[in-house]
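User: Some background: our group keeps a shared notebook of sequences we're curious about, and every so often someone picks one and asks for a predicted structure to add to the entry. Today it's my turn. The entry only has the sequence so far, pasted here. Could you supply the structure so I can complete it?
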Amino acid sequence: MNFFEAISLWWNGQKLEEFTMYGWPMLYWARLGKYLQFLGGAVVLLDLIGPDRFRRSALRLRVWSRWLAKFPLVRIVLLFIALLSLAATMVPVVVVELHGDRTLSETFGSAGIPIMLGMVLTAGLTYLLIQVEKFLLFVSKVVAFGQHGSGWKWLSFVLIVIGFHLDLLGS
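Assistant: Of course. Here's the predicted structure to add to the notebook entry:
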């Protein structure tokens, strides 16, 4: 079935759940419609935020990442603490496996996992900041490119309208 046939059936009150349009089930078309609506809304939000805010956020992240990069010893210590936390988390598991004593595992195991995750995340913070900074700079360039004309606004409008119609057919 094509798009206009689907609209006609939907308008007559028929559920389209069992039908396919261009070889895809209507559920897929409805989900595609939701994604297109989301993308259209995201384009509007990016336009409202503007490239300057993205650039400023990226520069703030650059300051933090360079500050962390100046202290490689801090990152090494944090990584070492993370490895120790991992070992402290694994000891209760080994004790339970060898001796069957769950009290030690319940006492130390539940506290070791959040500590370990926190330390690993802290140790990887520099890398994460650099990647987010690059992404924000890329987004600022894309948004700045789109602000020179009204193309972004029309793209958003088209995505939302098409997404709405596809989502409507799936309901």
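Suggested note for the entry: The chain has two domains: 1-50+150-171, 51-146. The longest strand covers residues 20-21.
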